[in-house]
Amino acid sequence: xxxxxxxxxxxxxxxxxxxxxxxxxxxxxxxxxxxxxxxxxxxxxxxxxxxxxxxxxxxxxxxxxxxxxxxxxxxxxxxxxxxxxxxxxxxxxxxxxxxxxxxxxxxxxxxxxxxxxxxxxxxxxxxxxxxxxxxxxxxxxxxxxxxxxxxxxxxxxxxxxxxxxxxxxxxxxxxxxxxxxxxxxxxxxxxxxxxxxxxxxxxxxxxxxxxxxxxxxxxxxxxxxxxxxxxxxxxxxxxxxxxxxxxxxxxxxxxxxxxxxxxxxxxxxxxxxxxxxxxxxxxxxxxxxxxxxxxxxxxxxxxxxxxxxxxxxxxxxxxxxxxxx
Length: 325
Fold this sequence. Notes:
By secondary structure, this protein is of the alpha/beta class. It folds into three domains: 127 residues, Winged helix-like DNA-binding domain superfamily/Winged helix DNA-binding domain (Arc Repressor Mutant, subunit A), CATH 1.10.10; 91 residues, Rossmann fold (3-Layer(aba) Sandwich); 89 residues, Rossmann fold (3-Layer(aba) Sandwich). It is 50% helix and 17% strand. The strands form four sheets. A four-stranded parallel β-sheet has the order 5-4-6-7, sandwiched between helices. Strands 10-9-11-12 form a four-stranded parallel β-sheet, with helices on both faces. A three-stranded antiparallel β-sheet has the order 1-3-2, covered by helices on one side. Strand 11, helix 13 and strand 12 form a beta-alpha-beta unit. The radius of gyration is 23 Å and the shape is globular. It starts with 16 loop residues before the first helix and ends with a helix.
């Protein structure tokens, strides 16, 4: 990527500023001007260039990470990923580039002002698109150590709405991230892991909070119960807290003949050692593919499932919001 990234924001547009920045970055990535492996500018640097609050840029970067397009690493910055989501973005945006270029040239030839043309285009889409926008604007709050990817996918599956993720670790360092995210949400979803913490955090905000939980499949527990006594079994997640949650479900089921070991992907040296010395490794979906490639004969998927009561809660919230349309 070129050292000088030129983005623009226009306060007169009806699109929010964070939407303008996000879509420009997705466009540049999609057409190949920003490539996989490139680093995006630090949030404070881009915010200064655009004359914005740093929290707005942080929110955009979190949204792009949520979409699987970039990765945020503390102390290392924001990197464009080389993965399926980036490939899909390029597949869609590159033909769009040709179409938009041709359309703009024709509009200019006819003397049509571009801002009026695209505003009219938006009006046309709204009038002719029968698919209504979703009334739920979800903000999902979780830590980085649990399998937040599983929860977010389940939330979106049940509600049909997009969910933006904000991490507690990021809020702890910069509370403004939460304030910026709440401007675009009418419902907050969190998990039983952090329900009390999130309720205290949001005590001053007028926002609905849904608390959901997960469990595991009975067939999985029966499988673990059949392991040889004394078997060294590692439970792996994004962090130790997520791994502890996994092993506790097994312990709560009365399965105690194994030697349970908790390990997180955020401790690579420890993880490597546990993979080597474990008889069996159960990995959450967020880390399964990576660990399976390292120890294919030991690693199995830990099957998390959303609790039925949580699915009902999300469905009721969706129905309530739909009834207000």
